[in-house]
Automatic annotation (TrEMBL):
ATP binds at residues 8-12, 139-147. It comes from Brumicola blandensis. The lineage of its organism: Bacteria, Pseudomonadati, Pseudomonadota, Gammaproteobacteria, Alteromonadales. Substrate binds at residues 54, 59. Keywords: ATP-binding, Ligase, Magnesium, Metal-binding, Nucleotide-binding. This is 5-formyltetrahydrofolate cyclo-ligase.
Length: 198
């Protein structure tokens, strides 16, 4: 019997290959569709601050969604590796003027400016990346645990009103996923074709 960690890694590689196989045209089309879905099914009239991420490694392209938020006056915050709390994220305001750097994983992030960061429980919506999800809302991430820690903090905070929504391509849906004790299931996942709520 395959160990859970081995199975998860095999699934991670399989789903990453699937999303990397999408053409540039498909990525652009899905980015437009998910932007429309987000505004029609997730955003509320009082949505003012959202957490997002810059797409990487075939993830669903968030650029059109970010641009549409800026156009509508919605503030966008993206993750920055915490400088002294290893494995944790900060969320920093992102604009077209934000100075960017590459972090130790080769991912673009804002140059840290603590005056522009926001506690994640003050976000109206936090959109999270994922490698795969299943029909129970279980999420398979890249394995670093960054978002599991963030989600755990949010869910432990009774005063948090932040809505948590995974973002995924339709092809990232798995019938079932192996889970570990530390995994945090998602209450919702948005794809280009529909909003799943669990």
């Amino acid at each position: 019997m395959m160990r859970t960690s081995t199975l998860r890694q095999a699934l991670r590689e399989s789903f990453r290959r699937k999303r990397l196989s999408l053409s540039t045209e498909q990525q652009t089309q899905f980015a437009k569709e998910i932007t429309e879905q987000a505004h029609s099914t997730v955003f509320q009239a009082d949505t003012k601050k959202i957490g997002l991420y810059l797409s990487f490694d075939g993830e669903l392209d968030t650029n059109i969604l970010i641009q549409s938020c800026w156009h509508k006056g919605v503030e966008v915050y993206i993750p920055v590796l915490h400088p002294f709390s290893s494995g944790h994220l900060l969320f920093q305001r992102y604009t077209d003027k934000t100075q960017m750097i590459r972090n130790k994983y080769g991912i673009n992030e804002p140059k840290l400016d603590v005056t522009a960061t926001l506690p994640c429980n003050q976000l109206d919506i936090l959109f999270t990346p994922l490698v795969a999800f299943d029909k129970l809302g279980n999420r398979l991430g890249m394995g670093g645990g960054f978002y599991d820690r963030t989600l755990s903090l949010l869910l432990q905070n009774d005063s948090s009103k932040t809505r948590i929504v995974g973002l995924a391509h339709n092809l990232q849906l798995s019938e079932t996923l192996p889970v570990e004790a530390w995994d945090i299931p998602l209450p919702a996942v948005l794809t280009p074709s529909r909003l799943y709520e669990f």
